[in-house]
């Protein structure tokens, strides 16, 4: 399947941010939480805590402070309850991240009809997934390829995206690979866009301000005879972007090429 999640073990991922890995929890317990098959009713006179409320609080923490700041204690503080009360509903952080991923995937629109054929459907998928990652940057710190949480929203997302490429003359494996390709492209583009946005937030400088601060010094040290192509292309790109990188233009250019490549592949099958 083309989706995954993040969990108990962790390591340094791209950009040296912390990446979570998982799949180590008990499958029966994890699936029961994801599908809400074993949730206990709230006790009379007690606040209705529950999985949904806990997960929403966890998403708020991760959105505001990043995945590294997420802990059961932090979520409990957000809710104004004792930490141990959370474990009645969710065994730990690994399972919590499972449900967080599945929950935010539920934000994706999945219309029954998308006018314009398969290109329009794939473009919608790409744009909505990019928007989702930008709303929840911590998604890129979650290993989301090989071990999916297998919750209802993950399954709905996978089914919707497969239906978008169904009827193109591809076999089932090619359909799965195509969905993986689209999501992989979006995650790469989202990473660059988020890094650019966070750089401005952390440094207080826009990309344009950063570029113009560095440009005069770069012009003095960059020898066009030694780096002729970099000097020529870099000057043109810097003038066009007013920065070293333009995330919006990069995404649009890349998406067109991905769609063109898919179209060429489909035509080659005729």
UniProtKB/TrEMBL annotation:
Coiled coil: none annotated. GO terms for biological process: negative regulation of DNA-templated transcription. Gene3D superfamilies: Homeodomain-like, Tetracycline Repressor, domain 2. This is TetR family transcriptional regulator. The keyword Transmembrane does not apply. One of its GO terms (molecular function) is transcription cis-regulatory region binding. Keywords: DNA-binding, Transcription, Transcription regulation. Residues 71-90 bind DNA. Residues 48-108 form the HTH tetR-type domain. PANTHER family: HTH-TYPE TRANSCRIPTIONAL REGULATOR RUTR (PTHR30055), TRANSCRIPTIONAL REGULATORY PROTEIN (PTHR30055:SF151). Residues 1-23 are annotated as: Disordered.
